[in-house]
Design goal:
Length: about 80
């Protein structure tokens, strides 16, 4: 089994990789002077998904926090 330090390093590398991919996709790729059919565009989905995906994950995350909080408040009230 992996130690906590190794798991932390793996999570950190994954988080930095996702951040750099998203940063390049949103901040740099739209302003590059290359054709749409270029090879680099095949590594990234259309730009509209760069805003739809984080918004969807945010709504799901906040909904999960709300459900978690309401569950524990309800449990406290009924106890």
């Amino acid at each position: 089994m992996a130690s906590d330090a190794n798991v932390g390093k793996i999570v950190f590398v994954i988080a930095v990789s996702v951040f750099l991919y998203y940063f390049f996709w949103v901040s740099i790729l739209p302003f590059m002077l290359i054709d749409e059919g270029d090879l680099i565009h095949s590594f990234f989905p259309p730009l509209k998904y760069a805003f739809i995906l984080p918004a969807t994950f945010g709504v799901v995350f906040l909904g999960g926090i709300a459900i978690f909080t309401l569950y524990h408040i309800w449990d406290f009230i009924t106890a």
